[in-house]
Amino acid sequence: MKKFLETGKIVGTHGVKGMLRVQPWCDSADFLKQFKYIYTDNNGENKLTVTSANAHGNVVLMAIKGVDSIEKAETLRNKVIYIDRKDAKLPKGRYFIDDLIDCTVYDADTNLILGTLTDVSATGANDVWHISRDGKEYLVPAIDEVIVSVDVENAVLKIRALKGIFDDED
After folding, report:
1. In the beta sheet, which residues pair with residue 141?
2. In terms of DSSP H, where are the helices of the chain?
3. Which domains does the chain have, with CATH numbers?
4. Which pLDDT value is given to residue 8?
């Protein structure tokens, strides 16, 4: 599992004192604002200290130590930001999308392989898992009635697919 996870992108500035506007790529702005440190690389070499973070609509307004002017803030525009996995506190039953990608998906009843999870789309009501098999993509709602178990350590997902998703039934 990756140590540093993509969680958003710096999309602009706010005001003239170096505040950053960050678009969260996680469940909510509230989740992103909990971190004391963010990184602008995926290996933790470019560490930034967050001095304040507040949800503001669909973005997070973030102040970074040493970034105290609009000019300094502009140098960070369009940077993807990462968090260190060890700093994240996930509720039970929640997972990072990065950990789900490439997991093998099994039918919970027959234990047959249904494919590999290749992507997750957030639709608003629920996430949708993209499962690929034999060059075809199947879209499966990530809802309690479908997801039976998730074992990211062993890269195994077990589902009970809704009728018609993996077969040709009408």
Report:
1. 128
2. 29-32, 70-74, 97-100
3. 4-86 (2.40.30.60), 97-159 (2.30.30.240)
4. 92
